[in-house]
Amino acid sequence: MQMPTLQQLMEAGVHFGHKKARSFPKSKVFTFGIREGIYIIDLEKTKQKLDEAAIYLKSAATNGKTIMFVGTKYQARGFVESAAKELNMPYVTERWFGGTLTNFETINENIKKMKKLESDKETAKYKALKKKEKLRIEEKIQKLHNNLDGVAMLKKVPDILFVVDTVSEKNAVHEAITMNIPVVGICDTNADPTIIDFPIPANDDAKKSLEMVIGIVKDSIAEGLKNKPVIN
Fold it and tell me: Does domain 6-101+157-226 have CATH number 3.40.50.10490?
């Protein structure tokens, strides 16, 4: 895994924060100043925090920890899903179901429901249904797939959350804090970095910025998985 240079971070627009009026006071610790009313993130600090997060995630993966990716904003969905699938890690890209962590049994029940609806399609009862009724069931199944495919592999709550945009995903962050699950999160200047275990100060709106940061996270976990002990 090769960390990006300051120049590469700048070219990706990682340094662009939010306007002063929309920024969280405690995020100033990661800023360089204000330019044309917009906070500029200190890329030296981004690099430092990205490195800390990468080391932590690599170690966690080596030790067999499950890392859930969370990113439902449209700019991030593709990057999040692709990275998580490549690593065989759980992910949420559609919407965060309340209780995903704090009431995990409810999610399990929904997964079982989805699987039962799928298996019911092979029954004579289903095949005898009218086309309109079949379509209604198919739509229900598809909706469940959209929301649950990323977490269907989970047998228990994940060990760590990687969150893209800790403000948009505040419900996921809150549940993780309640469950004492460590959070690695991209924190733009509108976020409170003090509630995140491993905050990564970065632009969480620009696609190039998201692609770069998520790419580093993915590569760090991938390296950790390569070092994971083989259990015979």
Answer: yes
